[in-house]
Design a protein that fits this description.
Strand order of the largest sheet: 3-2-1-4-5-6
Helix content: 25-40%
Oligomer: single chain
CATH topology of the largest domain: Rossmann fold
Mean pLDDT: 94
CATH architecture of the largest domain: 3-Layer(aba) Sandwich
Structural class: alpha/beta
Shape: globular
Strand content: 15-25%
Largest sheet: 6 strands, parallel
Radius of gyration: 21 Å
Number of domains: 2
Distance between the termini: 42 Å
Number of helices: 13
CATH class of the largest domain: Alpha Beta
Low-confidence stretches: 1-10
Length: 363
Amino acid sequence: MNTEASSNLASRNVQKVLIVRLGSMGDVIHALPAVAALRQAFPNAKIGWAIEERWSELLRAPSAKPYSPLSPQRPLVDLVHTVNTFKWRSNLLSSQTRREVKELKRTLRIEKYDAAIDFQGALKSAVIARWAKASAIYGFSAPREKFARRLYSQKVQVAGTHIVEQNLSLAEALAQEKLKMPAALLPHDDAAEQKMQQWLEEHRISSFILLNPGAGWGAKQWPAERYGHVAKQLAADGLSCLINFGPREETLAKTVQQESGGIAQPVNCSISELIALTRHARLFIGGDTGPMHLAAALGVPVVAIFGPTDPARNGPFATCNVVLRNSASLTSYSHHDNADEGLLQISVQDVLAAARELVGSVA
């Protein structure tokens, strides 16, 4: 593998690996295949993962036992180290923050990790990787935050176009060989499955399309009323639509429901419940968001509505999909709320045509 310094680890002697990818939903999901590849390369290794507490259900179901063997409830990693960096930054000098940071350092170091891999490329993630005092710390040679680079002992040149492929190159640097791209592994929570199945039965829904009008920032957000118009016309085709919404997205969901004539039903889920619900979806329609990447990871067909972000790097991966992006959209990852002109050029009819194409192809 292409690193700036050769590893001082004999890769086949790696017994414990720490993964650092703190958030967010889509970014954690994009790291799952690389970690699954590491699991295959080092089947007897113990793998831990440092992650923001709010995203930990992407790695383990609430019912998962912390120290039991791998299971459907915790299919990929042996240990989950939860952090809350937002709260820490807000209360940097508090005794509680100091205690929590001290405890995280203790639990990381007690594992005596042989290697740590920072898939995030931020200063905070690199610091957490460093706290583990692993023999080697792997990160990209050109990370998102350049100061993170100083904390890596193994600096890996990126390979691949899509972020999933780029993440795999980090795993290959540790394994010192080419690795196959496995599917992402996500937890299966029986309680969440039962709850969502009961909800669907109560609403007499047996087949549905999942709409997701929200986005990480406004420039990536296709107008909510257009989702409603899509839902209304899909209903005329006999296709039910559900509206997924997260915190502070209630107004978006209500707008979609109103514009659909009350046909589309909003549903607010925990992460485990969203995983369970998405598994049953016939199709997903949404922008460059965590729920879209979740649908792709679960093999659900996706209509992806893109604006300023690049679908070649961030598009739906390893699933049947149609990506809609207007040529007027210029690639930018600046988090701003100004409407993207190219995104606004994508019409309801464009989305309907893509949805009908995918529904027909998987019928």
